[in-house]
């Protein structure tokens, strides 16, 4: 059976069944990341079930409560932000309706709420059919299928013992027989080699390759085809693109307003090239994970090109330089991409559905918060093999990099010194003013170098909240003095200070640091501003003296050290990590620093000869000792947690990560034999790309909200074989295992009787028929027209604006915030976050592209000009040549006759006026757009 040749429009309008909707819904993720934290921090104290006094009868802690509203009516009208009282209150447009009452929230926060309402106000808090348990019972949670140990099951018995060709066939056939179904016949060889070629290299087979396979009578003929395709360098290009979806790869930064035309990552392509090479070399998948998380820490040292693997962590969004969101993105891509767990849902609270505590989230947060990108990235190629042109570029770029390093050092020294010398000003501000929302803003813009830095003011406020206690040896007096009424402060201050004179015998709780008591006694105190300045002057004096004179031994030395820690320790509010210097710069130096970095990046982008560099992370000089952010708020620190793995996988008595940041420890924990998730997740992804649908319908979420596997025993068999074979963690071996099966080699024809019992083909009674994705479609058109540039690796190119560009689609520039219409029309994965699978849509833009796009016109012209076609003397011979090039087969008599009629009709129509394409070019375009060319059976 052949697909109709001239179904031009049908190709792009055929109804396609989309993939199962992921329960890790983007709308719900948006709520968890942008909406819930604001509600928790600013609203729940007055408008929730836990509020001490519910105001206005309004609760905001469930969606039904928001829809019901309070005394003034419904707070929420999904899809209509202008009609939602919640939005009106946040905008402060009504004198009697302003929330929160202490001050208007930033415009960016309000914009997030408007967007949330516009998309229907998705809200996972209310799940009427789901029981949310208080606390986590890890032993009970381990009963979930995904956390059960992997055990290699025995092959199930089947009735049709002659059908299985490979082990996986037993599992498929057993399910089919249990459902009263039978498998489909084997596909013909032309169909089979096209299926394998598109699957493994993303390109169609040539007519010669098809004929060679058809004529090969050896029993291992198909195995030889599979091995040839796996050995092709184009295999890495095809399967790297699948992984880049998971890795949320893009060639540009987000933040158009911040970076403008300079938003291209100059070295992003090195990660893409690493993935291609790793797949081609069949790097074991466990090693692949280790390199992506910690290539810099592997011993013995890896080759320079492998350092580029760490782009997996560094190529995510920048979130307007909100470091907490950046780290959340890294946790998300690791947990969903490698483990199939939505760990980021535990950022503000224990996971609502899975056994992931907030402590687990911040344990991983500590790993990534202990890392930072170095100012100068390492070379991704051997320094001894650089070309003369590359060396010349480095000679020009070297002084600029040196100037950047010096500028950063100078700014760090300047800002650190100012932060310490101005402690009195910070303490006075913290003691005498109310908190300013800017103090906890994501970023701030200071116009004056003399301005106090809002984040640093917030740090001092937080320290005072933590330390102002009656028994604190440093801030005990402060605690007592701030209790005094302002109107009687002068009369009572002396007595309060005097009570602390008898408590200066030590530095333990309940005593008083003698230097503090002395400073307060010698300073005129008329209010808390004087108290704050007394403390600040003392801290500055102790710090300055420590630079000149070593600390004495005994009580005085200990007292000085206790105060010195408040100034110079890494936990001091005045401490500025060198990697965070940029955040504290004033406007002019901040602009200068950014301009210097952009200048270097632009040099690289404009210089093809510039050597490649790896976008790595490096462990910070001072590692993060993580603490839980209460309700996800970095300004409210909770309990300390160690850097370690997830409790559900490692157990409650695990050993914290001991090597630096813990990135390598984390990678090894992810690939440890006892972890049942990693191998299940990757074999499920590979299965999905071969068979259209995964065994687990949510490839990035194996938690409690996922559907059980359609074939649980098969999933475990694949996972166990994948890790325990003679070639452990080999993806190429996994491909062979799947493709050399009867299941894979079935025809894709519909069978109404089977469809009635299993309409979704869940049990694989046939192979699914699939439309080519964007990459295989465009690359196939280039290959057929003879214009495909088969060069491997290299910098990204413009494949949309330049229709004459023949590079493979994987090398096209992926602009994160301005994804081309072509990409969007053909279901390209969003690079904003890790994508578990691509959608499958059928929209008019797809048909319009096939008919009108300059790229299609170029391919039609090139195909009609191929020597194989030009050499033919007759029209019939030319038609046959086109069929061999496009369909890799000979046409039959009816198709030749239809082709001749088409050419005659075009010739007749052109008498009325010339068209963009001549008859042969139009005919070539029609063949390129047939179902037979655009689908794989």
Write the layout of secondary structure elements.
Elements: H1 8-13, H2 26-42, H3 63-68, H4 85-91, H5 107-118, H6 138-141, H7 167-178, H8 189-201, H9 207-215, H10 221-231, H11 233-246, H12 256-259, H13 269-280, H14 285-294, H15 311-314, H16 323-339, H17 358-369, E1 371-372, H18 388-421, H19 423-432, H20 454-467, H21 476-481, H22 489-499, H23 514-522, H24 528-548, H25 555-568, H26 581-584, H27 587-606, E2 618-619, E3 627-629, E4 637-640, H28 647-650, H29 663-670, H30 678-691, H31 712-724, H32 731-739, H33 752-757, E5 770-771, H34 774-785, H35 821-825, H36 844-852, H37 854-864, H38 867-870, H39 875-886, H40 893-909, H41 919-928, H42 931-934, E6 935-936
Antiparallel strand pairs: 1-2, 3-4, 5-6
Helix pairs in contact: 2-5, 8-9, 8-10, 11-13, 14-29, 16-17, 18-27, 19-20, 19-24, 23-24, 24-25, 30-31, 30-32, 34-37, 36-37, 37-41, 40-41
